[in-house]
Fold Carbon monoxide dehydrogenase.
Amino acid sequence: CYHTKIITTSPKAKIAGAVHIEFDEHDALKSAREIVKTAIENFSNRKGNIYIPDEQTNQIAGFSHETINYLLGGLFRASYRPLNDNIINGRIRGVAGVVGCNNARVKHNEAHITMVKELIKNDVLVITTGCNAIACAEAGLMVPEAAREFAGKGLAEVCETVGIPPVLHMGSCVDNSRILMAATAMVKDGGLGDDISDLPVAGAAPEWMSEKAISIGQYFVGSGVFTVFGVTWPTLGSKEVTEFLFKDFEDMYGGMWAFEPDPIKAAQLMIAHIDKKRKVLGIDKARERVLYDMEMRRELDAV
Ligand code: SF4
């Protein structure tokens, strides 16, 4: 009824009845312009029952693995060291990758926003892609000022110092590999174990719907990340298969699946996993920062 045109861009994924505008990766701007022009030309066909809200929000996107490196360490010393240090000293409790689709079975964006707000409130830095990123941007979580309003004290302090939002947009849903690149960089930088499964991190897709989300989730689990999905879970009919995925996988991969449709409970599962990893690493108690005066220094020298 809105005369919406479906446009396919890959020769491998054409749809009957859709308009096909092939994406030329050597001239992406040309393909993008053609698609935008098609949309503009079709706009006059949208008549009647149209509601476009007046509200507008800003967002800062484009936090690729390389950009995070640069933002944290600067041009000459680009590294994840400041992130690792702030995880070790407890200002940042851990990192969560919250990604994935919207699902028509639940209220649009509600689980995404509720989960992400619960995580950042508890000092967990969120990195995101795909439709979760759009939801977070709409909710105003992707500007540096969001740290003061929504994040816990420790995370807000780090975000304000570096000038980043508490939720970092790492790209589209096919860019999830960037999240694992970030996790690998954290391991390489040292101080947080020897494997991704040692890190105080967790993953989630609170409103997933596409099979692709399951395969991406398995990529996370197989890499050692505890990953929780919402809405529905396809193996609940079999106790054996479900226990295999939710429990036995941990011994095999270091990461395992979980299912929890309530976004607050799901966020708490992720935080509990992050705390479990912090304890194993011996960083479960934030280090007290003591400022030494001259007298205290003299006492130290005398020892
Ligand atoms: S597959 Fe990607 S673009 Fe499609 S609904 Fe899921 S997250 Fe969004």
